[in-house]
Amino acid sequence: MVFIGGAGNMAGAVIGGLVGSGYPAERIVATGRNKQKLAEFAARHGVEVSADNVAAVAGADVLVLSVKPQMMKALCQELAEAVSDRKPLVITLAAGIPLAAYQRWLGRGVPIVRAMPNTPALVGAGATGLFAGEGVSAAQKHIAEQMAEAVGIALWVDEEAGIDQVIAVSGSGPAYYFQFMESMIDAAEKAGMSRADAERLTLQTALGAAKLAMASEVDVAQLKRNVMSPNGTTERAIQCFQSGGLPELVAQAMHDCAARAAEMARELDN
Ligand SMILES: NC(=O)C1=CN([C@@H]2O[C@H](COP(=O)(O)OP(=O)(O)OC[C@H]3O[C@@H](n4cnc5c(N)ncnc54)[C@H](OP(=O)(O)O)[C@@H]3O)[C@@H](O)[C@H]2O)C=CC1
Ligand SMILES: O=C(O)[C@@H]1CCC=N1
């Protein structure tokens, strides 16, 4: 499996998760432009690295594209000759680039899967949405799904637009929780707790809430009520979130997130 842009944040998290889950490191090649960064990445994960994309993809059955969306067109044009005849499975992790663009850039008939993972893949707790384009075989779908499941859970969407919804929930979602944690840590510190203690309690609480929600038979609304004693402390805090518009703000942020993905697609210059 060849990861183009493999030492970056997202591909690096997937590779780290794959290797951590027992996938043979010697079967992974990560490419990039910065040789120093690649050498450090190779030392950390034991994978092969290369600064030559075209040489790296020669003979590969599966390519994972993980450069920034703005760089994707140039990358595909660089790779087009190497993939147009052999037609390996191409899995792209990029937000905001529709399949039709890859078909223009790589040539028609290349089987492409859009995958939208998230950075918790690094610790095996990723969530990946998948959408398969035309001509992707069942065996190739299985390969994409196995990659995603090696680093967390995988979910297929039936429509390409569903990927933008996945971005709004899980692709970008870790940052929402990090923002919330950061705000809690800052507030606790401001109130007099040491930053280290605030961090420890906040992170353990986030982990505990997620674990409890996953193990529980009741939904998150009920779990929230279970913490709230009538006229107690939690009720006061939740009232503050609700009167301050947190539910509407979350919905707006997710709407804006998905809308940005659609806007990025419109910004492409063919
Ligand atoms: N970060 C996230 O949480 C998520 C990101 N994504 C998607 O993943 C993709 C990558 O994002 P992210 O990992 O955050 O970005 P990064 O900038 O961290 O990673 C991109 C990597 O690509 C390398 N790169 C750039 N140009 C080339 C090139 N021509 N050939 C080879 N390597 C190249 C860069 O390294 P160097 O400059 O050293 O070459 C860099 O390491 C994006 O398309 C994004 O939409 C999807 C889901 C979640
Ligand atoms: O912010 C971004 O554009 C990427 C896609 C999903 C998460 N990070």
From TrEMBL:
Main location: cytoplasm
Domain of life: Bacteria
Pathway info: Amino-acid biosynthesis; L-proline biosynthesis; L-proline from L-glutamate 5-semialdehyde: step 1/1
Keywords: Amino-acid biosynthesis, Cytoplasm, NADP, Oxidoreductase, Proline biosynthesis
EC number: 1.5.1.2
Chemical reaction(s) catalysed: L-proline + NADP(+) = (S)-1-pyrroline-5-carboxylate + NADPH + 2 H(+); L-proline + NAD(+) = (S)-1-pyrroline-5-carboxylate + NADH + 2 H(+)
Cellular compartment(s): Cytoplasm
Occurrences of domain Pyrroline-5-carboxylate reductase catalytic N-terminal (ranges): 2-95
Domain Pyrroline-5-carboxylate reductase dimerisation: 160-264
EC class name: oxidoreductase
Similarity comment text for this entry: Belongs to the pyrroline-5-carboxylate reductase family.
Function: Catalyzes the reduction of 1-pyrroline-5-carboxylate (PCA) to L-proline.
NCBIfam families recorded: proC
Protein name: Pyrroline-5-carboxylate reductase
Gene name for this UniProt entry: proC
